[in-house]
């Protein structure tokens, strides 16, 4: 097995599905011990099995990420974390006037607050050791106006700015903080999107959806020393959508 990340531990939020699960498998394949988090125990067990099947090691920590307390508890239970992948997210689409306050708070809780307090807990510990990598999973929809994706895009635009702020804050102490900005990717989470997904796919030069593994490869790159001089970057992995 490739050992580029041997003797490291990676925490992948939302590692039970889609992009997060593919990232967990890829990181484990490069030698990291992976802590997978999510809410669903069955999907967690399956993700751990998938990692063990390729010779990797992993644990599952069931966590409902909803606030600072849940984020801090996850950080403490995970132990020493060398690579943090802030991937867990929700992406409800719909008109502004049809969005309840509860929906609004849920999107910002999982997409912004949870990463914020995970970084608040884990980045200082990485900085004490003088090294670490944080990869935030944002979206191409953070970069342009979409009539049905304002709330989601705004939450990920916040995460994009935080990526740069954290690079400035923790970079001088050896922590690299970067983001991957995916385009439409076939996952359990996008399976029910129908025509809205197809329209997003059609707008990009490559004209096809990504496989989760294609996003995971970019996450893996940013986690390794191959990206040793990449700091505060937002890597578009969107089939060219943000270029046109
Ligand atoms: P997905 O298949 O729906 O998976 C989402 C993951 O997040 C699951 O593992 C889920 O685990 C976890 N999660 C959701 N709410 C949670 C909560 N409250 N507490 C803890 N874990 C929670 O999503 P995906 O399509 O792979 O997307 C992953 C990330 O990529 C998201 O941040 C998304 O915004 C971003 N992204 C996706 C696309 C795309 O086209 N797929 C494009 C751009 C960006 P449990 O259900 O077990 O809790």
Label this structure with key terms.
binds NADP nicotinamide-adenine-dinucleotide phosphate; 43% helix; globular; 244 residues; 7-stranded parallel beta sheet; Rossmann fold; alpha/beta
What would your notes on this structure say?
Helix 1 packs across helix 7 (212-223), helix 3 runs parallel beside helix 4 (101-129) and helix 4 (101-129) packs parallel to helix 5. The chain is an alpha/beta fold and 244 residues long. The chain is 43% helix and 16% strand. It has one domain (9-235): 3-Layer(aba) Sandwich (Rossmann fold). The structure holds NADP nicotinamide-adenine-dinucleotide phosphate (NAP).
Concise synopsis of the structure shown:
The chain has seven helices and seven strands. It has 244 residues and is an alpha/beta fold. Strand 2, helix 2 and strand 3 form a beta-alpha-beta unit.
């Amino acid at each position: 097995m490739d050992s580029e990340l041997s003797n490291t531990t990676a925490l992948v939020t939302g590692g039970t599905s889609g992009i997060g699960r593919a990232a967990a498998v890829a990181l484990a394949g490069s030698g990291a011990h992976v802590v997978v988090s999510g809410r669903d125990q069955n999907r967690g067990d399956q993700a751990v099995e998938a990692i063990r099947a390729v010779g990797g090691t992993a644990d599952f920590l069931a966590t409902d990420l909803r606030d600072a307390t849940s984020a801090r508890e996850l950080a403490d239970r995970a132990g020493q974390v060398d690579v943090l992948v802030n991937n867990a997210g929700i992406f409800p689409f719909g008109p502004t006037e049809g969005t309840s306050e509860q929906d609004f708070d849920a999107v910002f809780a999982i997409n912004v607050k949870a990463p914020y307090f995970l970084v608040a807990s884990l980045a200082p510990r990485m900085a004490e050791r003088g090294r670490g990598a944080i990869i935030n999973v944002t979206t191409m929809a953070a970069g342009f106006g979409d009539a049905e994706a304002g709330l989601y895009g705004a939450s990920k635009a916040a995460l994009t700015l935080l990526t740069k702020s954290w690079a400035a804050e923790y970079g001088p102490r050896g922590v690299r903080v970067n983001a991957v900005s995916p385009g439409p990717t076939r996952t359990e989470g996008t399976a029910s999107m129908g025509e809205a997904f197809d329209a997003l796919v059609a707008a990009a030069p490559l004209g096809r959806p990504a496989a989760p593994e294609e996003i995971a490869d970019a996450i893996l790159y940013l986690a390794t020393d191959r990206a040793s001089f990449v700091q505060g970057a937002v890597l578009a992995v969107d089939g060219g959508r943000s270029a046109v």
